[in-house]
């Protein structure tokens, strides 16, 4: 198993990840998104059959991204999956929200990538197949006003619940190196098995 230099803080009294690591000053850079190894995420959240099924969906989604040549970048993970939704709303999480910040595969532009692997970018298909609300942002583009606004949009949206409560979220590396460790954690938790 890989080890992470960071951990995911415990849910706070509001049932969400704190936006800044507990006991750190408000100006601390130790804040959301919490950058962790994929296995750390799985170890923390593989706590029910519903959560394990969603984590399995994340691994299958990542495997299909990798098969399409999308192996460099990172993912921001959020939604009610990262909240204590069972206590907050009396239900299990239904999906996970993910923004994949990706480097385009060698020799492909955005148009050709979508042409070749369109189902990975079809939100209805991705939701039904992997239980992911998936969005994408391409890395390596000029940092212009639109790029800054797009990143700020996702950070602002995911830093708050709909009711305005500040909360945290998680970042994992997009590369495939950590997926087998995450699958092992899921299997140990009794999750969905795919060989």
Keyword list:
single chain; 195 residues; alpha/beta; five-stranded mixed sheet; 7 helices
Radius of gyration: 17 Å
Distance between the termini: 18 Å
Q: What coarse outline follows from CA principal-axis ratios?
A: globular
Assembly status? single chain
Assign a percent range to the helix content.
25-40%
Estimate what percentage of residues fall within beta strands.
5-15%
Work out the helix count.
Answer: 7
Structural class: alpha/beta
Q: Major beta sheet, specifics? A: 5 strands, mixed
Q: What low-confidence regions span 5 or more consecutive residues with pLDDT below 50?
A: none
Order of helices and strands: EHHEHEHHEHEH
Strand neighbour order, sheet with most strands: 1-5-2-3-4
How does this structure look, described?
The structure is a single chain. This protein is of the alpha/beta class and 195 residues long. The chain contains 7 helices and 5 strands. It starts with 33 loop residues before the first strand and ends in a 7-residue tail after the last helix. A 5-stranded mixed β-sheet has the order 1-5-2-3-4. The mean pLDDT is 90. The protein is globular and about 50 Å long. Helix 1 packs parallel to helix 7 and helix 2 runs antiparallel to helix 7.
């Amino acid at each position: 198993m890989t080890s992470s230099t960071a951990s995911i803080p415990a849910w706070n009294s509001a049932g969400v990840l704190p936006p800044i690591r507990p006991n750190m000053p408000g100006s601390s850079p130790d804040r959301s998104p919490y950058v962790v190894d994929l296995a750390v995420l799985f170890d923390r959240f593989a706590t029910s059959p519903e959560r394990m099924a969603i984590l399995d969906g994340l691994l299958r989604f990542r495997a299909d991204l990798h098969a399409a040549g999308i192996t460099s970048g990172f993912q921001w993970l959020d939604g009610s999956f990262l909240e204590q939704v069972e206590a907050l709303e009396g239900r299990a999480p239904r999906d996970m929200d993910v923004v994949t910040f990706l480097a385009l595969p060698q020799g492909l532009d955005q148009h050709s990538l979508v042409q070749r692997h369109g189902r990975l970018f079809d939100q209805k298909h991705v939701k039904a197949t992997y239980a992911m609300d998936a969005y994408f942002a391409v890395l390596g583009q000029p940092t212009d006003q639109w790029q800054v606004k797009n990143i700020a949009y996702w950070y602002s949206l995911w830093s708050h619940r709909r009711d305005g409560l500040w909360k945290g979220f998680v970042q994992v590396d997009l590369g495939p190196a950590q997926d087998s460790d995450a699958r092992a954690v899921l299997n140990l938790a009794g999750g969905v098995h795919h060989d």
